[in-house]
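hey can u check if this looks right to u? its 257 residues, i copy pasted from the old doc so theres a chance i mangled smth
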Amino acid sequence: MAERTVQLVLHYDGAGFSGWQRQPEQRTVQGVMEEALARLCGAPVAALGSGRTDAGVHARGQAVGVRVPERWDVQKLRRALNAILPADVWVATVHEMDAEFHARYSAVSRRYSYYVGMDDETHSPFRGRYELAFGQPLDRGALDAAAAHLVGEHCFRGFAVLGTAPPHDDHRCRVSEARWLDRPGGLVFEIEANRFLHHMVRFLVGTMLDVASGRRPVGDVPRLLAAADNRETSSPAAPHALFLDRVEYPRDLYCVP
């Protein structure tokens, strides 16, 4: 049967999921997507994500690669999926891709953001679900200095969960942007890199918040970038304030209508 290679761009609220990856007896985004695709296509369809978001982490730009029967053009597929998916998952856009497209291995960059609330309204149920309520004063200069150390290519072994990458992996990531921005009621940390390790953004945020609140010096960030493990790294920040915003691919992998 002729197939069409498609990229789905998903938004999802991670609060109701045990992460992206399919797991027995657990509700996951991959599991929900594959159930919907099988229902539409009449056969199992693998949904390959650009990366595995943790339990509680949200997305508004998760890229998913699927191969569907050719009768499913991209707009028909999007409408059909959104008609049957649960309310906490939405297909924002659909792109027809070259047959060589792979959602994980073809990606050239990924972008995340992490939201920190600094005012009392952060505790509102309309914000607390998506922001880390942080009631302590923060040194903005220290935050900026800590983030500046991250730009460039580094080994992030000190900011990753031990044992989740293969032993031969060098844990090197190339960070093109890392910055803290002011926003109404708080701050947002934005980071873009060619790859991310397990819990990497959350370890970075937890460490930088400790630096900015005076619990550790700014000099710890470059020192931890040279560390062999995460034993001296701050605890990872909570997952509920983290968003996967965007995944970029080479333009020549997109099929032009």
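The domain at 3-106 is CATH 3.30.70.580 (Alpha-Beta Plaits).
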